[in-house]
Specification:
Helices cover 75% and strands 0% of the residues. It is an all-alpha fold and 114 residues long. The protein has 2 domains: 38 residues; 44 residues. The longest helix has 64 residues. The N and C termini lie far apart (123 Å). InterPro entries: Bloc1s5. It comes from Homo sapiens (Human).
């Protein structure tokens, strides 16, 4: 730049013979474009992990929702079984025990009242 030498503008190269004849700038720009494109691809493959992370995140959320759904189904099934057992076995047993106890309490009350 300020070194006092001659500078060649980007996209132009000096001719091999040392003259200042410009080379076809389309060929140079095209190859520069390909290099930039290749560098972009390399960068995206090596340093840009967003697509991979997004895919892994989607997979994790899907698996989590499936497992959560299965877990909720198991909880609901357990609750259904517990309610059925309570209605069929525990409540009748409690009812019978309560009737026996109440009849004993009524007998004691009548004995004390008289």
């Amino acid at each position: 730049m300020s070194g006092g030498g001659t500078e060649t503008p980007v996209g132009c190269e000096a001719a091999p013979g040392g003259g200042s004849k410009k080379r076809d700038s389309l060929g140079t720009a095209g190859s520069a474009h390909l290099i930039i494109k290749d560098l972009g691809e390399i960068h995206s493959r090596l340093l840009d992990h967003r697509p991979v992370i997004q895919g892994e995140t989607r997979y994790f959320v899907k698996e989590f929702e499936e497992k959560r759904g299965l877990r909720e189904m198991r909880v609901l099934e357990n609750l259904k079984n517990m309610i059925h057992e309570t209605n069929e076995h525990t409540l009748p047993k409690c009812r019978d025990t309560m009737r026996d106890s109440l009849s004993q309490v009524l007998q004691r009350y009548e004995e004390l009242s008289c």
